[in-house]
Amino acid sequence: MRKGFLTFTAISLLGFSNIALAKQDVCVFDLLGKAGESYKMMEEWALAAKAWSTDVQLIAYQNEELAEKDFKNGKCDAVYLTAMRSRQFNKFAGSIDALGGVPSNAIALKAINFVLDKRNVRRLKSTVDGVEYEVGGIGQIGPAYIFVRDRKINTIEKATGKTFAVLSYDKAQIAAVKRVGATPVLSDISDFVLKFNQGKVDMVGAPAYAFKPLEISKGLGNTGAMFNFPVLNVTADLIFNTTKFSPGFGNLSRDWFLKQMPKQFAMVKKLEETIPNSYRMNLSKEDKERYQKLLRDTRLELTQQGVYDPTMMSVLKRARCTVDRTNFECSLSGE
After folding, report:
1. Greatest alpha-carbon span in the chain
2. Which band of pLDDT confidence, cut at 50, 70 and 90, is reported for residue 157?
3. How buried is 227 (Cβ within 10 angstroms: 0-12 exposed, 13-18 middle, 19+ buried)?
């Protein structure tokens, strides 16, 4: 009897040991794979997670669509994707990237800090197709700018009839391009800049994160330029299946991400400084306000269509008007 009990105990302990050593697979998208800044940050996160009794195994992806697919199919317990793709899992956090919603890094910092605040835990959980997901962190990738192959396209009006590479799964980009009279050319994150570099499209939008690795200078050549006006702020979200992680994991993970914000924004600043000033095309105050109005109209329309979260739109407006109280929109309703 005693021998049987000891055998049962040994088997049970072995079972618990296997559970303790079980790894959570986390799919990580980065344009540069394991060499990218996002992946390196996630390596630090995985190391920190050991202190939360979580043993993480990272899987690098340079194909974002495949990372999303594998997460949906259960091959990964969590995934790190751009907010444009992760919005389907959590609209609140995914709406930080709304068109014109975050026109500066100062506002981006306010927005991310607010979203990851413990008071928003309920908003960071959502159920999609019977699966409960939670946002475990937000990474700053940086403001996205418009690049043109011909600097004669120096106003939005001159974009009429031109071709613009857009991410096919992002309704916001498609709507914005159509609004200015340009033709959206459906693309993926793996080839949208390539089309620009090869001259297949006249315009493209991208953050500084993509400038050097995707060799945007090839598309700019001697005649191209970058509108020195951010059209949106690009972030990435860590989304996890709550059933695959221990209770309280989300709070620990989000706290860790918040502590990385200074380093994240320093990285963005450093990357933006790699874009030569010769490419930058500065806009007049009047042009900037016209573009802000255009982006606002598109943002309102997309919020009504259910693409963006209305609560987040209100949060972003408060952040913008805290930083710039003289902004024309601060006296307007609608967000």
Report:
1. 89
2. confident
3. buried
Query: CA 47, 50, 52: angle at the middle one, nearest 5?
Result: 125
* Domains of the chain, CATH where assigned: 24-142+234-272 (3.40.190.170), 144-232+280-295+302-308 (3.40.190.10)
**Beta pairing, strands 163-167 & 183-187:** parallel
Give the bridge partners for 219, in sequence order.
Answer: none
Round to the nearest angstrom and report the end-to-end CA distance of the chain: 71
Beta-carbon contacts of residue 296 (< 8 Å; ≥ 6 apart)? 100, 329, 335
Q: Supply the pLDDT for residue 178.
A: 92
Contact between 38 and 141 under an 8 Å Cβ cutoff? The reply is yes
275, 177, 294: which is closest to 224 by C-alpha?
Answer: 275
pLDDT in tens, 266-277: 999 999 999 999
Q: Alpha-carbon distance 205 to 27, whole Å? A: 25
- For the whole model, what pTM was predicted? 0.89
pLDDT digit string, tens, across residues 236-255: 999 999 999 999 999 999 99
DSSP characters over 148-207: ESSTT--SGGGGTT-EEEEETT-HHHHHHHHHTTPEEEEE-TTTHHHHHHTTS-SEEEEE
